[in-house]
Design brief:
Elements: E1 12-16, H1 20-38, E2 44-47, H2 53-68, E3 77-84, H3 96-111, E4 117-123, H4 131-139, E5 141-144, H5 155-169, E6 173-174, H6 176-186, H7 190-204, E7 209-210, H8 212-218, H9 223-235, H10 239-253, H11 261-284, H12 293-301, H13 321-328, H14 336-355, H15 360-372
Parallel strand pairs: 1-4, 1-5, 2-3, 3-4, 6-7
Helix pairs in contact: 2-3, 3-4, 5-6, 5-7, 6-8, 9-10, 9-11, 10-15, 11-14, 14-15
Length: about 375
């Protein structure tokens, strides 16, 4: 049977989305592949990141001129309209002249002879209602990359797949536990994740396999991941480490106006709530203690979703599976009564932070000592 002929590449490619890092990375990959395939020296990159409608019109004029100019040193040319910021709802896209020119280009491209010419457009926002997008979608190929969000249930799975691909591209492999630890440290941030993968690859050197110890040794924690470290210390019921982590967080607040004691408190509430829910899942027999991360994830997939709350705040399956996996080994440090009491103390802490004039750091310290301290541990009294 003769081999199936590979279809010719689309002459026009649009790469866009909120995930700016991935959009730029994918666009660079396409442009590099095209230029290597086509050869020659006539390829052109047009900067389409503009400040006003006048600059947008100049960029479109240059694009139109480039499309009409035949290649001198090769049989074909690739054109990249890079970082275009006037295809969505931006201010520069609202001008009548820009809208009219884009519509004219769309009509021209329907009848344009694309022999020997390929066009790549990269952008953050694109209005799918406009005729230009509809034309590209018809005559070419559209690739969309939405940013990962912690609110998406599958963001961790998507991040893991993306990271594993990047690691393999560097001729490395990573264990499941190390990959999960990496994702929990970085969070939903493709740019930082790529940087940490590069650091890991350099750190292990000739070693082909990346282990969880390597991640712990070299990878940084972002803001949300540092909050996980505080919650992990609480879950481990390691009071000295818990107070050290709290001090680190309180020190970091001096340099980050977006962080607050209330924010730390909410993270601790989420940790205790997760352990309470895990206790209940264990009691129901939906999950069992499991040392292997992949087998634990398989258990989660079998949990009856209809038995869980629709509110994501109270649904354990809405959490990163690795966060649950680590919390599963921590629930043994607390009885269910202790966890219920911990939620009550965190509520009281919230009330004191909001309504009293007490020192916020002292209030948090006292609350954590009351929760994680063993019988006989006493907190320093608060002064008014």
């Amino acid at each position: 049977m003769p081999p199936v002929a590979k279809p010719p590449p689309s002459p026009v490619r649009l790469v866009f989305g909120e995930d700016e890092f991935t959009v730029k990375q994918r666009a660079r990959q396409i442009y590099r592949e095209w230029t290597e395939e086509l050869g020659g020296m006539d390829h052109e990159i047009i900067d389409a990141s503009v400040a006003n409608s006048g600059e947008a019109l100049k960029a479109l004029s240059r694009l139109r001129e480039s499309l009409q100019t035949l290649p001198f040193f090769g049989s074909a040319k690739a054109i990249w309209l890079q970082d275009c910021n006037f295809l969505g709802d931006e201010r520069t896209a609202g001008g009548h002249a820009v809208t009219e020119t884009l519509a004219e280009l769309a009509q021209e491209w329907k009848e344009f002879s694309w022999d020997g010419v390929r066009l790549l457009i990269s952008a953050a926002k694109v209005d799918k209602r406009k005729v230009l997008f509809k034309t590209i979608d018809k005559i070419g190929t559209v690739e969309s990359f939405e940013a990962w969000s912690p609110d998406d249930r599958d963001w961790a799975d998507r991040a893991e797949a993306w990271a594993r691909k990047g690691i393999r591209a560097r001729q490395k492999e990573i264990s499941d536990e190390a990959l999960a630890e990496l994702i929990s440290r970085v969070g939903a941030n493709a740019r930082q994740l790529d940087g940490e993968i590069e650091k890991l690859s350099l750190y292990v050197g000739d070693q082909t396999s990346i282990q969880v110890e390597d991640v712990a040794a070299i990878c940084a924690r972002n803001k949300s991941a540092r909050a996980f470290a505080l919650g992990d210390a609480l879950g481990d019921r390691d009071l000295p480490r818990l107070l050290r982590r709290l001090d680190e967080e309180l020190w970091g607040m001096k340099f980050d106006s977006q962080k607050s004691e209330i924010g730390l408190l909410y993270g601790l509430i989420a940790k205790v709530r997760a352990m309470l829910l895990l206790k209940e899942m264990l009691r129901e027999g939906w999950i069992k203690p499991e040392a292997d991360y992949q087998r634990f994830k398989a258990q989660l997939e079998r949990v009856p979703a209809e038995r869980l709350p629709a509110d994501r705040r109270f649904n354990p399956l809405a959490l990163n599976p690795y966060v649950l996996y680590k919390a599963l080994s921590q629930v043994k440090h607390y009885t269910q009564i202790e966890l219920v009491r911990a939620m009550d103390r965190l509520l009281q802490c919230n009330q004191r932070l909001v309504s009293s004039g007490l020192d916020e750091s002292l209030v948090l310290q006292q609350t954590l000592v009351q929760i994680a301290g063993r019988p006989g541990t006493r907190a320093a009294p608060a002064s008014n």
